[in-house]
Amino acid sequence: MKTWAQQLYHFYTHFTPGELPNHVAWLFPQRQPEVRKVVKAFLDKYYNDRNERRLLLGINPGRFGAGVTGVNFTAPKQLTEVLSIPHPFKSQSELSAEFIYDLIAAYGGPEAFFGRHFIGSVCPLGFVKGGKNINYYDDPALLAAVEPFIIESIETQLRLPVDRSACGCIGEDKNFKYLSKLNERFGWFDRIAPLPHPRFVMQYRRREKEQFIDRYLQFLH
């Protein structure tokens, strides 16, 4: 049986996304050799095993985190300062990444966190329209077009040794409702746990960040 690193690297570098409606374009950073190199370094460092892990699924990658690095909820600054992974990207950060890496520190650090969890996305590729991020659920025609890809992607990840007793859903409104609906159809997980989206916390409730981190820790433990 292949390791998490081997299977995830193949997963993230072999997408064949179809056409999108309404002038929406795919955000597919793993097409670029420099991104593939970073993704491989990250996976080889933290996922070179066959251990059981629990999934957390965000919405879809955005332009300034995974849309640059190819690593979910990870901007170039975290690659350098936390993970010590070299890269050619401009040293920028991103609000969601800052929250997630504060959470990882509170959990016990990258080795402890990534050793027991994998953060993915309901849709593993992102979307751009008019130079701005768009989420898979923002446009009904887009959602209809990408739903088969979403289902196939989740089922591919579930071929890994995943703890199916619970899945953390990052985004407790539309992302949670949609993932819950899919889970009712396919029975992937025993339960879906809604978790506040890091961008919401950092933009609107930053003073309460520690309380939101505690909510995540309760799920993770």
TrEMBL record:
Coiled coil: none annotated. SUPFAM superfamilies: Uracil-DNA glycosylase-like. It comes from the Bacteria. Gene3D superfamilies: Uracil-DNA glycosylase-like domain. Residues 45-220 form the Uracil-DNA glycosylase-like domain. Pfam families: UDG. This is SMUG2 DNA glycosylase family protein. It comes from Flaviaesturariibacter amylovorans.
